[in-house]
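Subject: sequence -> structure tokens, single chain

Hey, anyone have a minute? Need the predicted structure for the following. Not urgent.
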Amino acid sequence: MENSRDLYVGLMSGTSVDAVDAVLMGLGDHCQLMAKHSHPIDPTLKAEILALNAGCDDELNRSQRLCRQLGNLFADATLALLSKANVDPIDVRAIGSHGQTLRHAPDGHDGFTLQVGDPNTIAERTGITVVADFRRKDIAAGGQGAPLVPAFHQKAFGDNNERRAIINIGGMANITLLDPEHGPIAGFDTGPGNVLLDAWCERHQRQCCDKQGAWAASGQVITLLLEAMLADPYFQRPAPKSCGRETFNLDWLEQFDVAQYDPADVQASLSELTARTITDAIHGQCDHIYLCGGGAFNDDLLARIQRLAGVPVDTTDALGVAPDWLEAMAFAWFANQTLNACQTNVPKATGARGNRILGAIFPAG
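Reply:
Had a minute. Here:
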């Protein structure tokens, strides 16, 4: 086993709100994924997350109650992971917890982002030091607070010969462009990843997601709808930029009068929107695309990206990293970097004034 001081837990609950991803990482000379666990989110809890994200009554009380509930859920996920790995919590140096985003509004002088999942509760329940609140320091420094993963992408996937695009397709899609000479040269949210696909599928199919993109594959792209969606100002904005459910949601979709169309054709058009905005963002700046996140398992979306990209497209499995665990791995690594006082934001990606040490430390005991 790795030295106990090299063991870290990473926790991630993303925009899709489908599960808590928990990983155990060995972070000695190399990043080693030692164990993984997907912890379910109760449908009632998911509904409360989505309600607060959209805006609801009594937000202050409800958000703080949710913060404690998610802290307990993240602690449960950690303890289940460690039990599965047969590792004592005392042997883990720290937990890196992203938290659950409720709001992301980074633009302007008073921009902010809010992730909940009380790190004090996690530390108390597990007996492990927790590092959390990774995004707000970057925003305080004038950045978007997102994406944060380019630094980890460079650590995990940087190559001396190949220009690589690492594309995470979660609820939103984000891209990291890695250059052999200059490292991360760009990183930003390209727009919706799975968020509209999942929401439309849930409305019309009563399923939480379109498995393998089968429903989208059964439809035909509606050109007029696609072009209208692509005209949204977000897609024309230069980077750095980031987005969330505040921007892309069913209310946004309904402005295009989608009720007049066959639902399967709308789903096909949404899949094409995700593929187009990803490939348009690359602009020939890479030799190879590697996909991660839940969207990496959507066969229809993968086929659309392959058709549009003009370069080889694979998942990060080709680089030895399972695509569905990458973000949780990143936050284990971020915890390590914070405890070692290392700067981990990438100003070229977030727009911050400079490099910063991210995260706040919540000691055990």
